[in-house]
Structures are given as C-alpha cells and as structure tokens.
Amino acid sequence: MNLLDFIPQIPIDQKYWFVRTNSGDYYDDFVNEGFIGIGWNKITNEYFKDNRPLGVVVKERYPDTIKYNHVANQIDTFSRGIKKGDIVLIPSTKSTFIHFGIVQDNEAYEEEEIPVELEDIDNHPELEFNFEGVCPYRKRRRVKWIDVKKRDKLDPQLYRLIYSQQTITDAKPYSVFIERALYDFFIKGDKCHMVLHVEKKGDIKGNHLVPFMADVLNIANSNLEEKEEGVDLKVRVQSEGTIELIGLIPVIIIASVTIVGILGGRAKVLGMEIDTPGIIGRVLEWKEKNQEIKPKNQQVQEAQQVSQIPEQQQARLKSNAEELDIKLPENLEKSLKEYLVQLTQDNNDQSSSKKKVVSENIQKDEEY
Q1: Residues sharing a CB contact under 8 Å with residue 135, sequence separation 6 or more, in sequence order
Q2: For 21, 123, 225, 234, which has the most beta carbons within 10 A of its beta carbon?
Q3: Does 303 score more than 50 pLDDT?
Q4: How many CB atoms within 10 Å of residue 118?
Q5: Which of 184, 319, 191, 311 is nearest to 247 (CA)?
C-alpha cells in the first residue's frame, strides 16, 4: 500500500461530453432521476440494426427536418458514441450550474416508457402543469452524478463549451479545464497534477505571487533526478485563480507533501498529524521499486533534507501564501487523511499481531 492508492487517477483516454437540457427545462429531472436523454423518439434503437443510413431514416420519420444528417449524427453519438465511464456535463437554466456525472451503461438499447400524453403534450395543454419539468425523451443513458459547480467558479475557457448550441458536444478539447474543475490533485498517465487555489480577492501583488511561485517550483525541482524532465507551472490568476504544478508522479507527490508540511504546519491535515519525512520516505521507497535511483539509506537522508527547507524560505513561503490566501488542494488533503488512517490501522494490526505471537511464545514456554 502507498499514497498513490488514495489519489484520484484519470484514464489517459478519458472522454467528455456536454449534453444540453432543453434550456434547463429537464435539468432537475436529469439530476434527480440520474440520466441524460435526447429526443427524436420516432427513431428507436431497432434502426441501428438496419443497414440503411440513419440519416435516411430520420428524413423518413421526420420529413420536415432540414439537417437530417446532423440529427442522425447526434442520435448515433448519444446511442453508440458515448460509452460507460465517459464523463458528461449538463447545464441548468441559464447555465448557472453545471453538473458532472459518469455514464453507467454501455449503450442506450433499452428505451424508457413515456406516457402518451407526455409525448403528445402539444395536444394536451391541460396536462402541461402535471408534466412540467418531466423529460419526454425515450432514449436515455444512466448517469451517476459526482459533482456540481457554479459556472462563475469554472475556468472561463469552458464558457465556449457551455454556450455551444448542439444537443451533444464532444468536450475532449476542454479536458484540461474539466479535470481541473473536478480535481485539484490527481494523476493522469505518468504525470501528477497539483492545483493551489489563490483565493485573494482584488489585485494580486506581483511581489507576493512571483516569489511564491518561485519557491514552490524550487521545492518541486529539488526532487528531480539528473535526467528527469522539469516541472511545468501553469498560472491562471487575475483576482482569484489557480497555480498548477505538473510533473512526474513521485516528484509532485513529494513536493506536495512538503508544501503541505510547511503551509499546514507539520501539523494537521483534516485533524490528523502529518509526519512529512515519513510520508516522503514511503514515496521514495515506491520510486525505488520502479526506477533505478540512489541507495535506500541515501534516499532517507535525501527525504529528510527535502522536508527540511531552509527556515528563511519556509517563512517566505508561508508569508506569501497568507497574502495570496492560498488554499491547499482538497483532494490532496483527503488522500493524505485516508492514507494516514490506513497507515495507523496497519500499524495497529501489526502491533496486535506481534503481541499475539509473543503471547503464544510465552504460553509455550510455560507449558515446557
């Protein structure tokens, strides 16, 4: 067991989709019932078994439709393009809120039974109140909702996606911003990402921001091996914003734990004491098993050195962090807490096991 087991990990080929909610009309139904849906109910899943182009079927079933090939592509994407494990985003009315969810089923072969009156609501205006906000779409995909964000808390780069007019949009080009919205500490491929939140409102002083970034980058780069690539630093700060560190997994983990140990004090993460050198040592042990690096005794010495940043640098880092109102990554704190809980449990189990062995040996001696 190591710290990596408790850190969110995003598949390298993770896919993302943005699905509209009919101007927010069906947003609550999607969220409360755990699904996404698409219209064009006359095009059932049985048509996917035919050899005819779906665009031809759409034109037959909806003769007044002009962009029938576009409609066919949207239906095909919803039914067969979206896969289990894909992440979907849906907007509320006026896109004030964005919900994030994980698709739970493979394909939309089973269609929802919809009341006839709901499908033909235009001819039953007296029932509009009864069915207000109820989605009339037969084609549905099951979704487990995992998070919700206010639009104004998201990266502005996502606004172009949010205001796209298509029913379904491939959001993969926006994956960087979606991942940063969902997680502030995560692993993807061979890289680890750490996002520090700058929560200061108003003007950001360069004489606080620049030294803080330099110290953070210096801590991260101090963990690099001779031939390892450097750490990337991405900054999106005007008033509130983020500072993101991206680098090799052990490098960022060690740097992150060190920064937490300095800014949080060797003190507490969610109420639990952190033994910074101890955690770093365990990360280095994991690194040793996967790479040819320095002998273990030298690693332990190095881990202690990494955790013992010069007092002047620590004081500067703390001071600038306070000025910038830096918030540590919640996912990192959560991972550390879970890891420490498991470590404590394992140590208790080992201690109990040793006591049991000693007790059994004493009992055997007494029998002799």
Answers
A1: 22, 26, 29, 30, 33, 35, 37
A2: 21
A3: no
A4: 14
A5: 191
The tokens describing 171, both together, are 């959001």
Residues 31 and 144 sit within 8 Å (Cβ to Cβ): no
| Contact of 21 with 145, CB cutoff 8 Å | no
Domain 11-182 has CATH 3.30.70: no
The C-alpha R_g of the chain, in whole angstroms, comes to 27
Give the type of residue at 210.
V
d(C-alpha 55, C-alpha 183), whole Å: 39
Task: Compute the distance between CA of residue 204 and CA of residue 167 in angstroms, rounded to an integer.
Answer: 39
For residues 265 and 133, what is the distance between their CA atoms, to the nearest angstrom?
50
Mean pLDDT of 229-238: 86
Contacts of 330 (CB under 8 A, 6+ apart): 184, 185
Both structure tokens of 319: 């001071």
pTM of the entire predicted model: 0.80
Cβ 260 vs Cβ 219: under 8 Å: no
What residue ranges do the domains of the chain occupy? Answer: 11-182, 185-346
Contacts for 217 with CB less than 8 Å, ≥ 6 apart: 231, 233, 245
